[in-house]
Every structure is written in C-alpha cells, then in structure tokens.
Design goal:
183 residues, alpha+beta, Alpha-Beta Plaits, 2 domains, elongated, DUF5698, UPF0316, UPF0316 protein UC3_01919
Length: 183
Amino acid sequence: MIDVKMLLMIFFINFAYITLNTLRFMLTMKGYRVIAPIVSMAEIIIYILGLSLVLNRLDNPINLLVYALGYAVGISVGIRIEDKLALGYIMVTVILPTNTEEQKNLPKILRENGYGVTVTYAQGLEGERLVLEILSSRKTERTLYRLIKEIEERAFIISYEPKYISGGFWTKKVRKRQKNQQS
C-alpha cells in the first residue's frame, strides 16, 4: 500500500533541502560569508531528516523516486529564487559595430538611466569601434540589455560577474539614481 502522506513528506523535505542547497551554493559563490553558513545549518538538518526517511523505507522504490523528484524540483526552484533575488553585480562589455551619432549617444542614455559607463575606442577588423564598459546590478541587467538593443541591435555584448569592486563611479549616488529610474 502507498503511504501518500509519507511520499509527500519525503518530496517536500528533499525539495526544501535542495532549494536551500542551491541558494547556499550561490550565496557562497557571491561571498555572503554570514548568511551562507546559516543557510547550510538548516540545509543539513533537513537533509539528514529526508535521507533517514528514505533509507528507513527502502523496501518501497517509490520513496526513492519521490526523493529524486524532490531533488530535481528543488534545484529548479532554487535557481528561480536566485534569479529573482538577482544578487550581486555584472560587468558588461559592449562593442558597437559602427560609429554612428546614435551609437555615440548610447553612453549618455545609459548614464541618464543610472549606469556607470566607461567609453573607449578600439580598432576592429573593419574599422573603429566604440567599446563600453558598464557596471550594473544584476537586478537591472535585463533593462540594460534592452536599452542597448533599442539603440543598436547588432551590439556585441559580453557580461560577467566581478568578484571584487572598489572605487570608481559605482557609489551610493549611482544606486540611488537607479532606484529612482525604476520607480
């Protein structure tokens, strides 16, 4: 006989464990040195509880299947939660394919929207290129890409997450300006 209550407990316990595991890993990678260990404490307690439920009931293979399903769903939900939290910053390099007046206005437009922009000129295979280095919070990442693509859909965009940021234009004033732009 299938114990539905037990299957639901196994699923939700492993779901909670893996969701916390995914978040803890991402917090660790982003340098949250206080909250990551606290999350890991809750994570390990839930893990041991869930594993003991399954190991004590190995006579029913459905328990193991439900445990694995909780694992898979927990990873998916953990990633979605992290995407919504959008912790940290990204550094975006934009290389514009031509040097039109509209493209030359892009740094001004981005600055008006609260982004710090450093402009350099480079030489590409087919001539001079405008190169923009932009620091953005991850929460405004999609907005940044949309602004760039509205001006130049052929823009070459590379982004990465910086580990360390110090000095420069990224100050409370910039963050405040971005909040005002979002409101």
